[in-house]
Structure formats: structure tokens, C-alpha cells
Amino acid sequence: MATGKIIKALSGFYYVLHDGEVYQCRGRGNFRKKKVSPLVGDMVEFKADNYEEGYILSIHDRKNEFVRPPIANVDQALIVTSAIHPDFNSLLLDRFLVLVEAKRIEPFIVISKMDQLDSAMVEEMEQYKAEYEKVGYPVILSAVNDSHSMDEIQAHLAGRTTVIAGQSGVGKSSLLNSIDPRLSIDTDEISESLGRGKHTTRHVELYDISGGLVADTPGFSSLEFGDLELEQLPECFPEFVEVQNDCKFRGCLHHKEPKCAVKAGVENGVISEHRYNHYLQFMQEIQNRKPRY
Q1: Residue 198 assigned as binding residue
Q2: Annotation-wise, does 119 bind a ligand?
Q3: How far is CA 98 from the centre of its chain?
Q4: Is 252 annotated among the ligand-binding residues?
Q5: 173 annotated as a binding-site residue
Q6: 281 annotated among ligand-binding-site residues
Q7: How confident is the model at residue 171 (pLDDT cuts 50, 70, 90)?
Q8: The pairing of beta strand 71-72 with beta strand 212-215
Q9: Is 172 annotated for ligand binding?
């Protein structure tokens, strides 16, 4: 028996990395009975007589997991958002950040396609960069053939398991290909008629890139706050967490409560007004969510 990490799941097979070698394995039947499914990123105990015919015997405890994309034990999320085509969308970026924060995964942000901007738009992106860095998120402004930004991204990847998140067409696969051309992950031009990217990534796979493991995931297809409780939402905004002990009420939701430190922070410009407005929007979405039985 040996310990390894699942780096790919495809057509009922799990590809387990152990000591630099990959073993093709099947899951044992008792996983199905227990309604447990091995995930990419899982640490597992497995047995294999050769590289083609192994069996996964048990799965170690997970520190986190996503349903869509199906992956476990993620250290950080690289959130790619484009400056243009599709246009920068801070509401969508904040939605990704909340989903990642809810899983206690560290995010860092890459704003792509900076080379396609005029000077006024470059200035606007630099302001956003400053705003998100103030919250505590690393932000990299990236352009095609910009070796400096690629070096910065690679430094973040070393020694960690990273998922890439971002809407279609922002250049996630292109970014991975420019970091490591050996990957030649399929990329598609944005479909002009739809104005959004075609899904080119089909399955979850961990690639060895820059001394870390990177999942080129088939999008975060669900951007709904399905399992996020209202009380958890403030915890997903680091700038709120920083001041929440100064709120009059413990468990303050920073909405209608009096003497709220977060609302005071928005009023005096310490907390971004648009981030706070997005918070209120997400709050309403969770409140309006239909109960699941």
C-alpha cells in the first residue's frame, strides 16, 4: 500500500501521483456504498501491481472541497479577470472572492489583457489594484508577453495547489500556456456572437507548473451561494473582519444595526463603498434563496 495524490479523474479512472510516477486506479466499490467519491487533489492510500491496474483503498480527510469544479485540498485560488473583452466586472470579481473565502482558500487576482487598454483605462485598473491590495489581496496586472507579470504569477504558484477561477474568455488557459508552453491547453477565441468564451476545458486535472500543482478547471460553473449562510457572509470580507469587534452588537450583519463599525468605515472612506454595496447585494441574494429540503 502507498500514499499518493489524485491529479486527474477521467471516465471512472483516477490517476494517482506517487514518488514522481502516475498510477491509473479505480475506486473501490465500497466508496459508492458510502456515497464518497474520490476527487482530484485527494490524498489517498492505494495499491497497484503495475501502472495500469491500481485500486484506491481509502481517502484522507480533506481540508476543503469544491463541488463545481470537483476538487479537494486547495491552497489558493488564482482569480483571473480581464480588463477588457469581457470588460472588468468588480461585482463578478467580488463574487469569486466570497466563494473562495468561504472555503478558507487564499485568493490572488490577475487582471489580464492590460496591453489592450488606453491610458485612462490603465489608470482605472491601477486604482482597482490599489483598492484590492488595501483589502489584503495580491493583484497582478498582466499583459501578453510581459515576462515580469509571468514571473510574479509563477512565484505565487511554487509549492502550492492552485485552482484557476474566472469567467469564460478572460484568458485562463492562455495564461497557463504562456507560463508553461508544454501544456498547450486548448484555447478558443471568444465567440463573437455570444460575446463570451466557449468552454474549452473539459475535465479537472492538476498540472505540475512552476514547482506547484495547478488545476485548469472547467470554470466555477456555479457562482451561486448555495451553501453559504448569511452569518458567514461578513467573514468573507477581510476588511469587515478587521473592524467588526468595534461594532456595538456581536454578530452584527452590518446592514440596519446601529453603531456599526463597517458602515462607519464606508462613510469615512476606509472601506470601499462598491465592495459594501456588493455585500448588500449578496446578502439579499442569500436571504431570497429558496429553502432546500
Answers
A1: no
A2: no
A3: 10
A4: yes
A5: yes
A6: no
A7: confident
A8: unpaired
A9: yes
2-61 against 71-215: fold identical:
no
Could you tell me the residue ranges of all domains in the chain?
2-61, 71-215, 230-287
**Homologous superfamily of domain range 71-215:** P-loop containing nucleotide triphosphate hydrolases (3.40.50.300)
The DSSP secondary structure of 84-133, one letter per residue, reads TTTTP-HHHHHHHHHHHHHTT-EEEEEEE-GGG--HHHHHHHHHHHHHHH
> Is 115 within any annotated ligand binding site?
yes
**Residue 255, annotated as binding a ligand:** no
171 is an annotated ligand-binding site residue: yes
pLDDT tier, 196 (very low <50, low <70, confident <90, very high otherwise): very low
51-64 per-position pLDDT tens digit: 999 999 999 999 99
Report the pLDDT value the prediction gives residue 98, as an integer from 0 to 100. 96
Q: What is the pTM of this model?
A: 0.86
Average pLDDT of the chain, as a whole number: 88
CA distances 4 to 54, 87, 228, 253, Å, are: 12, 41, 31, 43
Compute the average pLDDT of residues 18-47: 90
Rounded Cα distance, 242 and 95, in Å: 20
- 280: which 3 cell numbers? 448588500
Q: Which CATH superfamily is domain 2-61 in?
A: Nucleic acid-binding proteins (2.40.50.140)
- Bond prior to 86 in cis (omega within 30° of 0): yes
Is residue 174 marked as binding? yes
The answer to the question of whether 256 is labelled as a binding residue is no
Q: Is 169 flagged in the annotation as binding?
A: yes
What sign does the dihedral 123-128-133-139 (CA atoms) show? negative
**Exposed/middle/buried for residue 245 (C-beta within 10 Å: 0-12, 13-18, 19+):** exposed
- Please check if 113 is assigned to a binding site: yes
- Top CATH class, 230-287: mainly alpha
